Amino acid sequence: MEATGNRWVRAATVRKRYAGIGEATLWRWVNDPKSDFPKPTKRNGVRYWDEAALDRYDRDIMAAGAVA
Q: In which domain of life is the source organism classified (predicted)?
């Protein structure tokens, strides 16, 4: 991963962040072409999300008044 200064979090942390969603729900959010949910970066087979991208997604969803 690039040294951007951002914090990278694993899938388990992302699932906890969104009310303990399951792995299948996270997969759907990532793979839904209509969803703007941030895409993970894979490193050695492990998925990582940029926490700043998740924060932006949360702000955008709250501003739109919608839920993933």
A: Bacteria
In contact, 68 and 26? CB cutoff 8 Å = no
CA 28 centroid distance within chain = 11
Task: Please give the tally of structural domains in the chain.
Answer: 1
**Residues in Cβ contact with 46 at an 8 Å cutoff, skipping those fewer than 6 apart:** 10
CA–CA separation, 65 and 9 (whole Å): 25
Domain of residue 41: give its range.
8-64
pLDDT digits (tens, 9 = 90+) for 8-57: 999 999 999 999 999 999 999 999 999 999 999 999 999 999 999 999 99
Residue 1 included in any domain: no
